[in-house]
Amino acid sequence: MSMLLSRTILPLHRTVRSIQGQILRTMHLQQSQAFVNGRWVGARGGQTFDVTNPANERVIGTVPDMDVSDANEAIDAAYSAFYDKQWHNSTAKERAALLKKWFQLMEANRSEIAQIMTAESGKPIPESMGEITYGNSFVEWFAEEARRIYGEIVPAPQANRQIMLTKQPVGVAALITPWNFPHAMITRKAAAAIAAGCTVVIKPAEDTPLTALALTKLAEEAGFPKGVVNVVTSSRKNAASIGELLCTSDKVAAISFTGSTEVGKLLYRQCANGIKRIGLELGGNAPFIVFKSADLDKAVTGAMNSKFRNCGQTCISANRFLVQDEIHDEFIAKLTEKLKALKIGDGSQDGVQIGPLINHAQIKKVCHFVEDAQQKGAKIIYGGKPLTNHGSLFFEPTIVTHLRDDMLLYNEEVFGPVVSVIRFKTEEEALKIANGTQRGLAGYFYSNDLNQVFRVSRLLETGMIGVNEGLISTTEAAFGGIKESGIGREGSKYGIDEYVYIKYLCYGNLD
Predict the structure, then answer these.
(1) What is the spatial distance between Cα 245 and Cα 269, in angstroms, rounded to a whole number?
(2) CA 191 to chain centre
(3) How far apart are CA 317 and CA 459, in angstroms?
(4) Whole-number Cα distances in Å, 123 to 116, 185, 266, 447
(5) For the chain, how many helices (H) and strands (E)?
(6) Is the pLDDT of residue 13 over 60?
(7) What was the pLDDT predicted at 511?
(8) Parallel, antiparallel or unpaired: strands 439-440 and 482-483
(9) CA–CA dist 303, 307 (Å, integer)
(10) pLDDT digits (tens, 9 = 90+) for 383-428
(11) How far is CA 379 from CA 83, 181, 300, in A?
(12) 436, 482, 499: which is closest to 261 by C-alpha?
């Protein structure tokens, strides 16, 4: 296994080889209906849309194309479950037990979930298995955190008073999730919300609803009460109107969204009238800085891990590679050799490390970014074109150098397998380039100069930083950005905070 895969994939509970190469078939977890108020339902009008495999564009499933009337039913079900059916009075122990059961069922069904995820997202089976390990860990974590939602007793300024601070669930949480991590982005949000005592309405991405429905099937089997977990599926045609409803409904107390900055800004505006609680994990433009003191082999391995997971379609993928003059050429040479060794193809096949892009809009964007750079004087060191012999959604791993600040690759997130290299001379220059964006999700740098490590860690304007490390996502750490890359944090002990409010109780006249 390549360094890319050996570092990217967490320990697997079952062998990957046993499920590679299998064809997605009708299985226990593959669902064709949405889930509202404890029932599997279609759209009111009977509309459906197809889900396709990006590796070959074949239809692998059909799900309901729901609209605002269907979404309203899901909101009503979640609202009723929270208030009328007393979910808000459930104990932390009860919620923890249900989350633990959900975790156990997901662990027991890893292989089937991985097949579904690879079929609809295109990512290689080992990456799907790695995501399942990562996603399941949030459910296990928040099952444990549910019993640690502590309040406080605060010393009062008067002798006859007592001040108490308690935490209570906000109510119905609407979760809008992306296609690039169809498992982990649901569990990271839903497990925290449920642990806090909220009910949820999940709107999965239109490209990857089958993974969401598979997880929901297991939530049903775990025994969650009716209305606690609801899933609304829709095509792109209805996605915007459903999103607006979730943001404006008086019955929805909180919104959590992972996706593009542009959509995040729209949802933020739509939530404003209701002063609704909102958590946003938005786009990045991650710098990956390699200083001359760096261990180049480790930096190249980190670059591969950060850039090429899910074909570069991750929100914390390295986007701009800043390499110091003295080691620029050597870094490029070493990285090129790694790219040449990557196996590209259908993610269900044995040994594949790079799958397709998710859809035609995405490959069109990647092609446009590379063509824009080339037309403006950039140099293609390796790759640079679609791989039509594999399928219409494949783009070869690419290295582009001689970037300028008028190029799209310099300024915007490509979300594809393209390494954009910028040469720099001094640390000050690298930081100026790295921080010269309104995005601030993640950043990476490699250096063996201890003073530089602490200095750059303090000055780099991102919410998360990998120091001599290209893989930084973990359940225990707070995930989130600054600037236009988001609001709030997910995972860690802070993930619960997005779904609770603090109630201040003042007990007076205690003479």
Answers:
(1) 13
(2) 14
(3) 20
(4) 11, 15, 29, 31
(5) 15, 22
(6) no
(7) 86
(8) antiparallel
(9) 6
(10) 999 999 999 999 999 999 999 999 999 999 999 999 999 999 999 9
(11) 60, 32, 20
(12) 482
Confidence label for 11 from pLDDT (cuts 50, 70 and 90): very low
CA-based diameter of the chain, in Å? 83
Q: What is the pTM of this model?
A: 0.93
Measured in Å, how far apart are the chain's first and last C-alpha atoms?
A: 72
Distance of alpha carbon 242 from alpha carbon 263, whole angstroms: 13
- How far is 19 from 495, CA to CA, in rounded Å? 33
Q: Using the 8-state DSSP alphabet, how is residue 82 labeled?
A: H
Q: How many Cβ atoms from other residues are within 10 Å of residue 27's Cβ?
A: 14
Q: Which of 127, 140, 206, 281 is catalytic?
A: 281
Task: Give the whole-number percent of the chain exceeding pLDDT 90.
Answer: 94
Active-site residue 281, yes or no? yes
Contact 253/172 with Cβ under 8 angstroms? yes
Strands 379-382 and 398-401, sheet pairing: antiparallel
CB 440 within 8 A of CB 482: yes
pLDDT 10s digits, 434-476: 999 999 999 999 999 999 999 999 999 999 999 999 999 999 9
Q: If 0-12 CB within 10 Å is exposed, 13-18 middle and 19+ buried, where does residue 170 land?
A: buried
For tokens 């993928």, name the residue. 317
Report the pLDDT value the prediction gives residue 143, as an integer from 0 to 100.
98
Q: What is the DSSP string of 353-411?
A: -B---SSHHHHHHHHHHHHHHHHTT-EEEE--SB-TTT-TT-B--EEEES--TTSHHHH
Q: Cα(17)–Cα(129) distance, rounded to whole angstroms?
A: 11
**In this predicted model, which residue has the larger pLDDT, 21 or 359?**
359
Amino acid at position 404, single letter: R
Q: How far is residue 466's CA from residue 470's CA, in Å, rounded to a whole number?
A: 6
CA 12, distance to chain mean position in Å, is: 20
